[in-house]
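User: My instructor asked us to take a sequence, write out its structure as tokens, and then describe one feature of it. I'm not sure where to start. Here is the sequence I was given:
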Amino acid sequence: MRRSAAKNTFEAWLMGELLLVALLASAMTLFLTSPSLRNTYELPAGRLVLDTAVVLTATIVAILVGVRFLVDGRRLDLLLAGGFSFAAAGTLAFAILPILRGEPQDTPEAWAALGARVLAATMIALAPVLPGRRIRVPARALVAGIVAIVLALLAIWLPLNALRQSLGPLRASSFELSLTLSMLALLALVAVIGFALRYRSQGEDLDSWLALGATLTLFAELHYVLTSPHSTDFVSQGDFLRLLSYTLLLVGIWRAISAAEFGRAVAEERARVAREIHDGLAQYLFTVSTHASMLESGASLEQTLPKLKEAAAAAQQEARFAVLALSSASGNAPFDAALRRYIEFLTADGALEVDVEIDDATLLAPDEQIEVFRIVQEGLTNVRKHAAARRAEVWIGQRRGQRIVRIRDDGTGFEGEETAAGQGLKNMRRRAETIDGGLSLRSRPGWGTAVEVTLRA
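Assistant: Let's start with the prediction itself. The structure tokens for your sequence are:
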């Protein structure tokens, strides 16, 4: 079923990709066959604006991919971060800064900008091709990559500056320029094929966006090769396509990172629920099985049956709690609805009365919803087992600009926090720390206990 859905998704994307290629190819054919459409515009200020937009967009893309690399440590992300960083740094150093200094972009700077683009395109094209191994120390590798980019920029600039007098002008008719632009187009084609194949085999959404962005880059480079003369003072259709490709990549990478963050939180919570099922539900089921075996062996029905019924009821309640936690974690049930249903199950026997108040204006992120649900569950479980309380209160709201989760009971209370330093409190504190929150506890003998979690700003 999953493979069929993934195949259908890839086929739908492939149809969209082919449609995009057909539209871009038709537009290029129209430009080539209609000389009146093959216009370039002598807009030095416009070219500066476009180059600045490319630098900003490529920098944001590099930062987003770099953050993803620090989390996952994948070589793919390191190459992408390096490629986009190189593209941004090369355009800034060799195309923008000379203009901002009031100097014309001379031939060495123009060739250096092209050289930086070639190296950036090479890194991006290699990203889907090289083995997808993970790097053990991502931060160190990222710093080394930044140093390598600076050294590579110097390696491009210094020889060209030394050959300033011998370098010919940057003209579309020159063989070296045509060869360089053709190489950029070829690298873009390699990136398109590489990311498309990777998307087909792994089904990762980011690869589809990278393939689409590389497609726009491919036709931008073809525009440079086949249409207008290359000059630092002119703006052509290829420049707009290049900017559009970076913008598309920015959207795709942002979507991929957002989905990964939520997916990781869901996966971690599911694993946590699985552990709790093993530690809770599985133990009750084992007890049920043990008492059933005792009945088969001729044990007293009057003594064994009540214990069997008690273990079965506890197992049923644990199963309901696990289902509620999973539904809340996966987004299938609203947080407040899942929490209220949990409390209904918890208080169904009448042993404890719980009041719930949730401020509608207090918003919780997906990872916070998961942890707050489990903190409340842990806290109320402690109240039932240890506090000898008749009433408890769960309040989620705001106080002095801070979001607060409070669990308070009218139980026996205790003196000092060391008395309560059991596994339940440790679990609550650990869960609060995972969402950058803080936990405080107040209790007095005969006055009950209050646990407060202050959520991150």
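For the description part of your assignment, you could build on this observation: The beta strands are 41-42, 234-235, 353-358, 391-399, 402-409, 438-444, 448-454. Try explaining in your own words what that tells you about the chain.
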